[in-house]
């Protein structure tokens, strides 16, 4: 069959016909390593990766060759140092680092100028390093014969010099190790700050290039964050995981990052006793945040709208101050709070009394309250409340108190897990009530989330029905055992 005449052929849309800005946006959804690799596909694309407004450096990109964590860290360091050196000086929108601080890390090229056989150990001639090598087959991608490309392409003579360099005594000793003979590397005795130096340098690069979002997710050993470089009029969101935040961190954020609104800290060690900010609107402490062990911490944020405080560790509950703007809070008081008493609970809840949405899970030692129900403030704005099984123990004491203190409540969620113990007893807040009745005139729904076989469910249903909540407002949702 003959081809149709050219005038009748439909135009073929080609990705190379798209504007550079759209192509950069497409590349920004990839990790930085993949973005560089994909730019090898087309001569027109070869420099696009240099101006992508998002950096996503992921150490797991380098673990597909059977390398150890230490070796992957070396490869990531080498990649990032060359990548940032070659990148165009254009503003960033987002910087994401998925990192691993290892206990013993082989030296990189910049850390050992004496010349070890790193290139042979880590196979720099494979694809993951090809984009930064001066190779004839990939010359169209990275090597232009001008001075601009010199920083990212090493001379053939230099490569040969590195390859022919004799092994030093330390490397020879490592090579004799039966377990690591094929992947041995120089192990440097760095102190904790030196191990974090590369990551801190990359974070400073992101701040200097106007990144509005910075995400640093670390594994293995904690990252010693150098907060001295946190000076930016553009940073709006900071997400840190497994980092040590030295004294002065929050003061530096306050003075150096006046636009910061979102802060998330996961599995971080906080050395400051006061977490203070005049700009934060969202503070998320989702899990395993460690406050100073010898002092009660204070959280003060007058513009804060949303707070998550879950499973954090400290000698006592933090003091919450200046929370007048707070609208929603997710709270889990776990066994990691070493000492807790009625005044701590009272001050904590009082600071949350203006919220519209509250999830409150008490999972610490059993606590007995005096003075009837005066320990709990009136939640005058609360419309959405979530409580766990701790509130149904001791004849529903805590649940009744919350219902009595929430006159505008519309949606109640009860998450029922099978009873468990903390310090030899079921976690609960207990006490005596002079008046057990409650009125939920605006209540629209009660959702009970529980396992398929839950021993608490029948008595909770009976309690709700006896309290005047009609069956049509009660929904039961099954979940897996935790």
TrEMBL record:
- Point to the regions of Acidic residues compositional bias: 111-193
What Gene3D superfamilies does the record point to?
1.20.1280.50, Ribonuclease Inhibitor (3.80.10.10)
The domain of life is: Eukaryota
Instruction: Give the residues annotated as coiled coil.
Output: none
Alphabetical list of Pfam families matching this protein = F-box
Q: Where is the F-box domain?
A: 12-62
Q: Where is this region: Disordered?
A: 107-195
Protein name as it appears in the record: F-box domain-containing protein
Per the UniProt record, the lineage of the source organism begins with: Eukaryota, Viridiplantae, Streptophyta, Embryophyta, Tracheophyta
**Gene designation:** LOC104584768
């Amino acid at each position: 069959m003959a081809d149709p005449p050219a005038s009748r052929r439909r135009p073929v849309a080609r990705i190379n016909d798209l504007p550079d800005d759209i192509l950069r946006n497409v590349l920004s959804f990839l990790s930085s390593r993949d973005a560089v690799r994909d730019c090898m596909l087309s001569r027109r694309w070869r420099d696009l990766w240099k101006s992508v407004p998002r950096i996503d450096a992921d150490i797991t990109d380098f673990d597909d060759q059977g390398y150890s964590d230490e070796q992957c860290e070396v490869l990531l360091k080498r990649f990032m140092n060359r990548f940032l050196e070659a990148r165009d000086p254009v503003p960033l929108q987002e910087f994401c680092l998925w990192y691993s601080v290892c206990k013993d890390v082989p030296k990189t090229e910049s850390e050992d100028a004496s010349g070890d056989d790193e290139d042979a150990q880590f196979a720099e001639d494979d694809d993951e390093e090809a984009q930064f090598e001066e190779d004839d087959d990939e010359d169209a991608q990275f090597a232009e014969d001008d001075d601009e490309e010199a920083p990212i392409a090493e001379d053939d003579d230099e490569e040969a010099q590195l390859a022919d360099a004799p092994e030093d005594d330390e490397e020879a000793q490592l090579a004799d190790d039966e377990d690591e003979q094929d992947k041995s590397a120089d192990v440097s005795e760095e102190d904790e700050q030196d191990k974090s130096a590369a990551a801190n340098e990359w974070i400073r690069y992101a701040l200097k290039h106007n990144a509005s979002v910075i995400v640093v997710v670390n594994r293995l050993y904690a990252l010693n964050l150098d907060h001295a470089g946190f000076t930016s009029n553009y940073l709006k969101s900071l997400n840190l995981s497994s980092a040590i935040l030295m004294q002065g961190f929050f003061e530096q954020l306050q003075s150096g990052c006046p636009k910061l609104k979102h802060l998330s800290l996961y599995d971080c060690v906080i050395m400051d006793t006061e977490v203070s900010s005049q700009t934060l609107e969202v503070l998320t402490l989702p899990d395993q945040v460690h406050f100073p062990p010898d002092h009660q911490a204070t959280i003060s944020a007058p513009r804060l709208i949303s707070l998550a405080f879950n499973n954090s560790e400290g000698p006592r509950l933090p003091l919450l101050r200046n929370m007048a703007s707070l609208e929603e809070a997710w709270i889990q008081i776990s066994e990691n709070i070493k000492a807790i008493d009625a005044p701590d609970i009272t001050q904590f809840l009082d600071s949350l009394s203006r919220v519209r949405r509250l999830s409150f899970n008490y999972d610490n030692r059993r606590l007995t309250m005096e003075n009837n129900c005066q320990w709990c403030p009136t939640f005058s704005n609360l419309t959405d409340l979530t409580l766990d099984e701790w509130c149904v123990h001791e004849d529903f004491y805590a649940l009744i108190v919350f219902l009595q203190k929430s006159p505008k409540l519309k949606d109640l969620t009860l998450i029922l897990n099978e009873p468990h113990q903390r310090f030899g007893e079921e976690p609960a807040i207990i006490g005596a009530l002079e008046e057990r009745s409650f009125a939920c005139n605006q209540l629209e729904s009660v959702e009970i989330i529980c396992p398929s076989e839950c021993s608490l469910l029948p008595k909770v249903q009976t309690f709700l029905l006896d309290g005047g909540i009609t069956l049509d407002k009660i929904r039961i949702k099954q979940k897996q055992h935790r």
